Give the backbone structure.
Amino acid sequence: MSDKITVAGVTVDTRHWIGGERVASAETFTDVSPIDGSAIGEISRGTAREAAAAVAAAKAAFPSWAATPRAERARVLHAIADGVEKRIEGLAIVETTDNGALLRSHRRGVMPRVAHNFRFFADWLLGLDHEDFDTRGHTNHVSWDPAGPCVLITPWNAPLMLATWKVAPALAAGDTVVLKPAEWSPLTASLLADIAAEAGLPDGVLNVVQGYGSEIGDALTSHPDVRRISFTGSVPTARRIAASAAANLTPLSLELGGKSPLLVFADADLDLAVDLAVEQYDNAGQVCLAATRLLVEEPVAEEFTRRFVEKAAALTQGDPRDDATDIGPNIHPRQLEKIDGFVRRAVEAGARAVIGGHRKDGQYYAPTLLTDVAQDSEIVQEEVFGPVLTLQTFTDEDQAVRLANDTRFGLAATVATGDPERAERVTGQLVAGTVWVNCFFVRDLRAPFGGSRHSGVGREGGSWSFDFYCDLKNTVTAPKGWNQDHG
């Protein structure tokens, strides 16, 4: 069996990257493209052995990388960004083949954002500072000390972008990294290892291990030498990781699921509101931030629904490599079955599919809008992670806020209104890590990102990332000639 595969002309190594070397496993797992269900190749399947080796490599590399001056760490991160920009086309086609997201989106937005992740945190590192402050003549100086080896576990819906959203600040902070990509979309993480090595990142500073099932993840998250764990994914997996990390009190950053609302008030620009609603089908609904619960004020609900159905009907679903495609496949047969199960149970419970509500050929699910849903129903309360939206109506602001907050999640919310004062009132009451007003998915890396309730623990972005990936230290220095007796 070959250790390398070719995807649309791009060579991808299927082995782990540990300590600056490619390492094969005795067993493999099959990586399958969601576009047509074809096998892409056999991927090295890591075990506790590879997990231990990767953590050992990260631990060994840590002292030197932590001591590397900020300017040099920033230079290497910019060199990685240069490497990403040179390979945007290859990264885009590999990721589209691997996870089914739109090729045009990868080319125009996602892969440039990958490079930006590295540049942003490199530059932020150079400006990272806190003004010294005085306590009775004593100087307080805050510093960000590198924490140590970090385990970063990333999801399949935006593999490289979400991986580098963690990798970049961790490396900038002076930490070393063990990255475990999702088993359904592992390929671009392997390419990132190549890019980082070419950019001059020292051996062992970035390690990439692949796995299938929980063995390697459990071994990584329970390892006593790991100093930070950052995870993006589902609530059940987060619970397992938290339990695994508890014995060592390893700090966690968890970005989890969502069941976000889109509140449409009668005074909103209805065309804008419809555009925002249809946008929730992006990436076949496989977006944690997606506003899957449409909450529409009663006077405009009928007209909103009519316009929504008309616009959604114009979407093209098909091969994500085609520029004309708006919605691609769902990632895996297991995920497709999960989506279909949610919809079937909802319909059996009395919901009505205004559009969609059924599987299509292959791993494609028709964009779906369900009405006549109860607030306490499964379809309203649980994350589907597919192209499935629900629509409910409300009569006033209080009811809108009550419905919006009535789930166990709190990742994001979107508000469509023409009244700035109403926007301020409503957003102040919403439980969410991010609230968009008359827009969606506008992300600035300077802002904190994360969720409330079951949508996560902690925040990353800007200085919040360095607060997590570093051990903050306050050094208090006495003034010259001071002694404690005169304090």
